[in-house]
Amino acid sequence: MGFSMRMKINEEIIQTKSFRNLYINGAKNGFEFDVQLAYYRGHFLSDIELLEVYVDGEKMPQEAVTFELNGKELPIYKLRYAVTEFWSQVLPARIRVIKKGGLPVGEHELELKLMLRIPYMQLGPEHNFMPLDSGDKVKVTVME
Amino acid sequence: MTKVKLGITLYSFTREYVSGEYTFEDCIRRCAEIGVDGYELVATQMIPSYPYISEEFLGQVNRYAAEYGVRPVSYGANTDRGMRFDRDLTDDELFARTVTDIKSAHKMGCKVMRAQYLLSPKNLVRIAPYGEAYNVKVGIEIHNPETPSTPKMLEYLEAIEKSGSKYIGFVPDFGCFADKPNVDSYYGALERGANKELLDYAVQLKYDDVPMPEAQKLLLEKNADPQVMASFFNMYGFLTFNKNPDFEGLKKIMPYCFHFHGKFHFMKEDGNEMSIPYDKILPIIDEAGFDGYIVSEYENHVSGQAFEMVKKHIEMERRILGIK
User: Fold this and answer.
1) Which residues of B touch A127 (CB under 8 A)?
2) Range B5-179+244-321 has CATH code 3.90.220.20
3) Which of A2, B90, B157, B255 is most exposed, with minimal Cβ within 10 Å?
4) Which of B21, B23, B44 should we substitute to test contact with A (largest number of A Cβ atoms within 10 Å)?
5) Pick from A10, A49, A80: which is nearest to B18 by CB?
6) What is the pLDDT of residues B207-246, one digit of tens each?
7) In chain A, which residues have their Cβ closer than 8 Å to the Cβ of B20?
8) Among B34, B122, B21, which residue's Cα sits nearest to residue B70?
């Protein structure tokens, strides 16, 4: 990995208090949490180059992950086409992960890999822009 | 009496705003407390409905303008050429984006819009009639390491002159007239453990206009530490400075300047900026009869001292310009 910009102005990227189980038809079947973009300005969702969720080092399948903003819950593959969806850096987005049976009770390591292009900082021709790392790794606790 | 007006870009309050310490209203209230009547905002930073102005946001803008006597004067647009995943935006697409920004600037009541250099000179000329229709002047930001006389900016100057339009021009950022290293490149580097002797040497190399490759070689021969080298790259890049700032270039473009970014990094105890010679820049602008805003732009916004620093900055400008 080469150089990437990091600008964590807010206290948290993954908002740990927002972490909770996801219930489907009354049964624990995954988890969700809020994420705030770590930069001084907002981005169109099409600037997101990579979004992956890991729990205790295990990658969650992309098909099980969604990204919700302004009431629109997008599967990850749609982010790159979302040239009209703007993510303000002060409005958290919600990440949802469907996982059969959810996470076991106890402490877990939750990692979000989130890489974007800084779309006005062109480093060279051929679509070469400064990468922005808005990823995070936190400890979360599943209570029930 | 001077026609220069003083304002603040809310970008100065980035840390306070993004961390949730200040709301949008708090940023504007702070401007009123400092005693200015105009602000700039970075559209992608403070307009949640970007690139559009929602009725809710417009209501806030107007309400705060009435309540605090501070209104938006300039709209900071970004030229997001890299917003598609697969390729750069074409010039036609960037043009269309810029028209959207002009409409939003107009809706907010801004008479000036800052554009960035990824908007080509040809596109800037093409935008002029739209600016005129909406009464929004569009200026290309001149930001370090560019100066009014660097080749890229001369291309814009030629295009602007040829167009004959009053609606396109420049928004110079005072950072391009720095004549000393900025606070972080020097004192910040020392705090992070840079070797003082070699850091002074790096500063001297830049001050003496030693070309970058040669200067880099000289520093590496002396085994300069990574902190010194990081400052070296800044001093030759976005945070560069010159023994002889481009004041002649500034005088030449004054007829095409309708807005300025009063960039600063640190206000000293004596009331002056550490690395940017305001005592020399402001008289040039004032003597040219400039009738518009200089907005204070505090770049070291992670410090948590934005309010105090901006206040001191405005006080300095008032002193130099003789504004009571």
Assistant:
1) 82, 86-88
2) no
3) A2
4) B44
5) A10
6) 999 999 999 999 999 999 999 999 999 999 888 899 999 9
7) 10, 90
8) B34
What does the pLDDT average to over B3-25?
Answer: 97
Domain spans, chain B:
5-179+244-321, 183-235
At residue B92, does pLDDT exceed 60?
A: yes
CA-based nearest residue in chain A for residue B90: A127
| Token reading at A68 | 């919700």
Please judge whether A41 and B302 are an interchain contact, meaning their C-beta atoms are less than 8 angstroms apart: no
| Residue B79: closest C-alpha in chain A | A120
B82/A122 Cβ within 8 A: yes
CB-defined contacts A:B, below 8 A: 75
Q: How large a percentage of chain B has pLDDT more than 90?
A: 93
Query: Nearest Cα to B296, choosing from B322, B259, B268?
Result: B259
Domain boundaries defined on chain A: 14-135
Q: Give the mean pLDDT of B182-202.
A: 93
ipTM score of the complex? 0.93
Is the pLDDT at B107 greater than 80? The verdict is: yes
pLDDT at B144 over 60: yes
What would the two tokens of residue A27 be? 């049964």
**What pLDDT does residue A8 have?**
87
Two tokens at B308?
A: 């105090």
Q: Peptide bond preceding B181: is omega within 30 degrees of 0, i.e. cis?
A: no
Q: Which residue has the tokens 């974007």?
A: A116
